[in-house]
Each structure stands twice: as structure tokens, then as C-alpha cells.
Amino acid sequence: MSNFFYGFVFSRESRSVKVEVDRLRDIKLFQDLDLDLLEYLSDSLVTEFVYMGETVVEHGEEGNKFYIIVRGQKY
User: Fold this and answer.
1) Class of residue 17 by CB neighbours under 10 A (exposed 0-12, middle 13-18, buried 19+)
2) What secondary structure letter does DSSP report for 28?
3) How many CB atoms lie within 10 A of CB 26?
4) Where are the beta strands (DSSP E) in 1-75?
5) Average pLDDT per consecutive 10 residues, the chain (75 residues; last block may be shorter)
6) N or C of the chain: less Cβ packing under 10 Å?
7) pLDDT at position 8
């Protein structure tokens, strides 16, 4: 069984998340992508679990990932 939250489908233990295509389309950056590309993107996303207080990225730091925060908050 899985949990569902506005286009995000969580595994039973909430350690992995599947982002549905319609949810990606709601993100302005992705709204003009065609369906095939959105499906590819949805299938390619990887879940990364971060503990409270753990730093994910520092301001000004060069990055190589794109984050969609599903639960929690940014500071």
C-alpha cells in the first residue's frame, strides 16, 4: 500500500516517492514540456531522504541536482 499527497505517491515506509506527471506539469519550470518528456522525467527522479537539520545545499555552492521538496521546508 502507498500514501498519496497531491501528485506524490509515497511508498509504505515513506522512504521513496513517485512524482506523477500531472504534478510535474503544475511546476512552472515543466509546464510546457510534452507528455513523453514529462513521463521520462517522472520515471527518472530519485528520492533522497534528508534528516531534519541536515544541510542539502549551501547558498552559492555549485550544484549538480534539482530538488523538489515534497515534505518539510527550506530555510
Assistant:
1) buried
2) G
3) 11
4) 3-5, 8-10, 17-19
5) 55 69 88 94 82 86 80 68
6) N
7) 61
